[in-house]
Batch of 2 targets.
Target 1
Amino acid sequence: MSMLTIIARVTDGLLLVASTDSSTEINRTAEIYRDQAKEIIKQLNPRSEAKCSIVSEPMIFHYLIEHGICYLTLSEKSYPKRLAFLYLEELHEAFVEELRRDYSEDWLSQIEIVSRPYGFIKFDKVIQRKRRDFLDPSSRDNMARLKNDLADIHDIMKKNIQEVLNRGEKLDHVSQISKNLASQAEQFKWNSKKLSLLALWQKYAPMAAIGIVV
């Protein structure tokens, strides 16, 4: 089912928890998927779709955003989409429940002020348990989950990973251009200041020299 699960803060992409399937072999392909997941999260903002699926053959990412927190998972394309989103919804509920237990009603502010990555890594235990629960789509519990789920998933946006990566490259390019323009503007401002000082020097230096001679 889930090869990778990440919980992150939407405003800046800070990773709060990252969990991989312990049976997943760590290889170049797994690293590529992790990098793609980080790029997806990096591009999120408060106006992003609350639910989205992103195809990265032969796998697919699904994410859910609640309270400014993104819950993202990577699974095989053959895994039922509805079950994948039920998995994310149960993760959200369990995460909030644990935060409420630790921080009471102040739990959301803890998400907002945390500054170090993986600040809630202890939640990985819950993720691992949920992953096992959702492992087999045909299990009795999962069949019951699907039967009781009334959510309509047909309107959930679907994208291709290349669209996301291309947009990221464009945003990085625009960001670099903005930085270059800001740097050039600062340089122009400094050059203008030097020219003004030079003009003042040329204007008043002879008078100062005469004053010194006299």
Target 2
Amino acid sequence: TLCTARATSEVLRMHGCRLTVFAACVAKAAAPPSRRFSAKASGGGSVKVPPALRTSQALVGHLRARIQILGPLSIADYMREVLTNPLGGYYMKGGMLGAQGDFVTSPEISQIFGELVGLWFVTRWMASGSPQTPIRLVELGPGTGALSRDMLRAMSRFPIAKNLSLHLVEASPTLRDVQEEKLASLTKTTDSASAPGVRVHWHTALEEVPTTDTCYFVAHEFFDALPVHQFQFTSEGWRERLVDLNDGATPQSSQEQQQQQQQ
């Protein structure tokens, strides 16, 4: 995902938004990201622009406006924007997963992976005495839903299934649709149409998942996609690295920035 953020940064530079990462005082870190995205695409004219390019320009316009109004972004805020912003975030589009997409994960290669993970959860349930109480199976960042589908296929052969509900923490509406289609034959969803099987609930954040019952958590290739803050040790102590506009200038290296600070 860090590579994704860097690649997106290169796309932004191509469309007139030059970004540079620089050391700044932690006390001056950017404000938390807004939940509303209202910036319009930058630029104008009557030239026909492909949809993907229009989306990139809209995201560029939003980033420029946000930085101009609120100041430099933390690396975490920048990653969050380029990955999940409805104006063109990487995970807001479709087709990035699978053989025809940008990358392939283990559940997409073989169903055996997910089925073994599901059986492992069954053994943990048995080891705890096979309790006949509600159990929430929670997947963080479920992608196409392939892992949950294969886990449920294996778990459905055991008594645990009658007390099981599936909770998917997914921020992308596009991926939610993909997951629903993938799980349709095995589940009944509470947020849309229903079919025989395990109940499925979607959540946009982990905080939305109820914790009143036993919860089993699974996350595959998820933590590497979480927005992170980045810090650098300078001659003046630790400083947070931020993303700022740098129109018309050549981005400085960390060494050049430290030299300027020392001067």
